[in-house]
Amino acid sequence: MKPLIGIAGDSFMNKPGRFVSAEKEYCNADYIHAVLVNGGVPVVLPHEVLMEDAGAVMSRLDGILFPGGEDVDPHLYGEEPLPVCGEFRPEIDAAWKNAFACARSTGMPMLGICRGIQFINVMMGGTLWQDLDEMSKKHFMHLQSGKRSYLTHHVEITPGSYLEHLFGQSVVMTNSMHHQAVKEAAPGLSVSGRARDGVIEALEDKEGTIVAVQWHPEGLLESNPLMNRLFADLVERSTAYGVSK
User: Fold this and answer.
1) Taking the alpha carbons of 47, 51, 56, 62 in that order, is the dihedral positive or negative?
2) Could you tell me which residues come within 8 angstroms of residue 15 by beta carbon, excluding any fewer than 6 positions away?
3) pTM more than 0.90
4) DSSP label at 179?
5) Phi/psi of residue 193, nearest 5 degrees
6) What does the pLDDT profile of the chain (245 residues) look like in tens digits?
7) Residue 235: what are its φ and ψ, rounded to 5°?
8) Is 85 an annotated catalytic residue?
9) Is 165 noted as a catalytic residue in this protein?
10) Are strands 153-157 and 110-113 parallel, antiparallel or unpaired?
């Protein structure tokens, strides 16, 4: 049986026009495609479901992907919002928090992407740069223009890390679409990749349940096929978890 991989959902309000203005539950299609082509069965998780009964839906899953999205609420890591902070959605954070708690309590495999790495880090007690200019005015371009398939900067992989084992190399090229980043890695998480300007680009835990990256591998499946390994690995870990349930 192929494993069921949950993708934490987001929502937006569409503009009035051909369709009546209404709130939509969604996830980007690239995440669905990336899980599907690497052997998993993607399941989009509406945030309302995660708010009302996360345990019921999470118990049916074998793994979960926390994707990109808006900024994480700074109050969750003990800070007041700065003017440089972007839009944050407490209702999405609350829903994802329920999903994370369920996953963490059962050892469910997780993959965090962009907002996902930031969210997982905060849930485990870490902090964020509300904007990279807080860290340094000389950081690289981390909010690229153009297609998500463009390769923008290098990420140096930590020697001996799970991520190095997964990629089989010490440096990878990635895209980059973020203005926030991990500041202090949470207890229980180790840094497994950095950009050459020092920005933390990957985290993992020693138990092998959490792999998280700051870039968007779902947009690189063709321009850098190595990134398929992140999704294939999630599927493999989730398969093993499903068998052990």
Assistant:
1) positive
2) 21
3) yes
4) S
5) -170, 145
6) 899 999 999 887 766 666 667 778 889 999 999 999 999 999 999 999 999 999 999 999 999 999 999 999 999 999 999 999 988 999 999 999 999 999 999 999 999 999 999 999 999 999 999 999 988 877 888 889 989 999 999 999 999 999 999 999 999 999 999 999 999 999 999 999 999 999 999 999 999 999 999 999 999 999 999 999 999 999 999 999 999 98
7) -65, -45
8) no
9) no
10) unpaired
Residue written as tokens 């069921």?
A: 4
Give residues with Cβ within 8 angstroms of 238, minimum separation 6: 3, 4, 5, 40, 62, 63, 108, 109
CB 158 within 8 A of CB 203: no
The active-site residue, picked from 27, 85, 102, 114, is: 114
Alpha-carbon span 98 to 104, nearest angstrom = 10
Q: What is the DSSP letter of 141?
A: -
* Residue among 163, 155, 168, 164 nearest 200 (CA): 155
Which domains are present in the chain? 4-244 (3.40.50.880)
As given in the structure block, the two tokens for residue 148 are 């998500």
- Coil, strand or helix at 160: coil
Cα-based distances in Å from 9 to 36, 70, 109, 171: 17, 12, 17, 31
SS3 147: coil
Q: Which two tokens stand for residue 65?
A: 């992907």
Does residue 218 have an active-site annotation?
yes
